[in-house]
Specification:
Strand order of the largest sheet: 2-1-3-4-5-11
Distance between the termini: 24 Å
CATH superfamily of the largest domain: NAD(P)-binding Rossmann-like Domain
CATH architecture of the largest domain: 3-Layer(aba) Sandwich
Strand content: 15-25%
Number of strands: 11
Order of helices and strands: EHEHEHEHEHEHEEEEHE
Radius of gyration: 19 Å
Structural class: alpha/beta
Helix content: 25-40%
CATH class of the largest domain: Alpha Beta
Oligomer: single chain
């Protein structure tokens, strides 16, 4: 059996360590490089690719690094699986085009938890039946980007249902700037909470006359992301397309 040769970028981070352990536990995967700027086996993707034969790179690094990391991978025929959030719509579009030009698969997923993906899919379905909706996402206080990639992707999926989720709202005036959160696709307000005690949670709240409907997902252990990560690695190893969102390969 030919194994998929995998490198992990951000290998010494909390998510990176879980990914390394997950890759090592799979008989069809071979861990060939641990990349991290902090005491990594390799300090950069360039250094690793010059020493190792790499099929797939799994990236859980930082928002400021991910865009360049993905471009380096695609330009060198390495298939990236991206869990780092913080990419803009314009950056995602550029990566998609580069993936197409090079014929190299790329999978970007704001969330790899199957439960979180189902939450997003259920929210997309519910959006057809409610005219008002907001999102609250809660993370640990070491998460740098806000709102979360999961919240942004959820809002994008919901926005397919209608142009605005503020039906009937009166004109608003914030007495404290930002108290209503950030306005995303289709006027969906996203509220970001950052504090110790959380890992990753999200609640989508829908409302209509006389009722509210809430869909919530909580991640309490990073191991919940690993089945999705491994699924993504196997997918890109066998395909050459660009994918945004794990729901597209479930």
């Amino acid at each position: 059996m030919k194994k998929i040769k995998v490198a992990v970028c951000g290998a010494n981070g909390k998510m990176g360590k879980e990914v390394v352990a997950a890759v090592l536990s799979e008989p069809d995967l071979e861990l060939v490089a641990k990349i991290d700027i902090f005491n990594g086996e390799y300090n950069s993707i360039e250094q690793a690719k010059n020493k190792c034969d790499i099929d797939v790179i799994i990236d859980f690094t930082q928002p400021e690094a991910i865009f360049e990391n993905v471009k380096i991978c695609l330009q060198n025929g390495i298939k990236p699986v991206v869990g780092t959030t913080g990419l803009t719509d314009a950056q995602i579009a550029e990566i998609k085009e580069l993936s197409r030009q090079k014929g190299v698969a790329c999978l970007i997923a704001p969330n790899f938890s199957t439960g979180a993906i189902l939450m997003m899919m259920f929210a997309e379905h519910a959006a057809k039946y409610f005219d008002n909706a907001e999102i609250i996402e809660l993370h640990h206080n070491q998460k740098k980007d806000a709102p979360s990639g999961t919240a942004i992707k959820t809002a994008l999926m919901m926005s397919k249902a209608k142009e605005s989720f503020k039906a009937g709202n009166c004109p608003e005036k914030e007495t404290i700037t930002g108290s209503r959160g950030g306005t995303s696709y289709s006027d969906i307000q996203i509220h970001s909470v950052r504090m110790p005690g959380f890992m990753a949670s999200q609640e989508v709240i829908f409302g209509s006359m006389g009722q509210t409907f809430k869909i919530r997902h909580d991640s309490v252990d990073r191991k919940c992301y690993m089945p999705g990560v491994i699924m993504a690695v196997r997918y890109v190893a066998e395909h050459d397309d660009f994918v945004y969102g794990l729901e597209n390969i479930l």
